Amino acid sequence: MERNISLVSLLCFIIFNGCLVFEADAVKSQRSEKLKLIHRHSPELGHNPGTTLGPPKNSEERLKQLVQSDKARLHAIKRRLGVVGKANDWVEFPFRSAADMGIGQYFVSLRMGTPAKTFTLLVDTGSCLTWFKCKYMCVDCSSVEEGQRYFYPNQSRSFKSIPCSSQECKTIDKASTLVTCPHPNAPCYYDYSYLDGLNVGGSYFNETVKFRFSNGQKKGLEMTMGCTDGLNQKNRFKTVDGILALGLNPLSFAVKAAHEFGGKFSFCLENHWIIKSESSYLVFGAEDQVPNMQFTDLLTEESKMTSLYPIKVTGISVNGTMLDIPSYVWDMTDRGAGGMIVDSGTTVTHLVEQAFEKVIAAFEPSLSMYNKTKGNLDYCFNAPPDGEFDETRVPRVALHFEGGAKLEPAVNGYIFDDSKGVKCLGFTRLAWPQMNIMGNLLMQNHLWEFDLANKKVGFARSKCMLD
Q1: Residue of 89, 196, 229, 343 marked catalytic
Q2: Peptidase A1 domain: which residues (predicted)?
């Protein structure tokens, strides 16, 4: 999700510059907190989040929804050109993957306030402001639209407004914080406008978020977030209550929580195409060592896009043969050209034309028995249904990263059902110069760990089963 650069720094939804202060206990055990991530098409939601439509009627409608939402996110990403963690408790939240609606890719349940209430938030890995639909200082706080849910600050004993006259307000984010200050105790206001048309306005606040450990114990941490009382396109948030920010920025929810719980966070992306009742986990902190975890460095020094997760690709291979892709394609510049970002908020993997053409050329001999046809993606072909489609004919793709790590996605990570009798390759072409984006479908069936303290990202094949 992206904000208009005239209002804020791109893709950095700042939570606050008021630093959190965490006091470590004398002795801390290894525990975990999990947020529930809910698949967008899960029966648990009843209908598509943020819309009034029912679930997609078929695979063509489903893929079309994913591709359309990717377009908005890609437009935002291409417009925008460290945390020292400490060993601590680790916490985990059940969650399920969700199709990107331009704001986030996952749903989580978060308990906040005193007494604590549960809110459902979209997870956005490319932003830094966690905000809630909110009713604060309203004339008639009981007047709400049907189906809308809100956070009511006046009902929480731990809610703390940020005065517009405070130093905290002045150091939050000059680009997005409004200078409006009618009187010293008035709230510190913000206004965000996103490139996909979403606009949110409201005031910053401090509030207690409840973390539940795996051993049943609880802990509350004061976090700085946004109370959004001005929101256009409200129908997009009918089934969710706001956004949980996981961007790579010291002000994001992920960075602050990781700082308290071990300097890292992780999540397991289950098979996107299978709707299950089980959940995977969003984990803050260091869990038990995962076998076969591979790591590569986060290129935070090379990139000015501090809210994203850039990594260095060394090449792409198909059936074990490295493709002849120019090396400059993987070199990230400060102008946003080249390189690759890991973005769980994008569905399909986007490759610049120099890489895209080589990948397609490597696939075509094996798929030549199928006629090319039009679909929602750039390369689609006529093929029999899954029960008759021979996956052994599909070439195996691998992405190679600096340091020797190699991602070998499952076939369903890059061959998608588009409509009856039509399948598509899960790659889209980008004109040069732009950056490459690894989407969540290529990441699925893997556990991903973002080690912010050591500036690394790791992954390991996993079935994402609950313990």
Answers
A1: 343
A2: 106-460
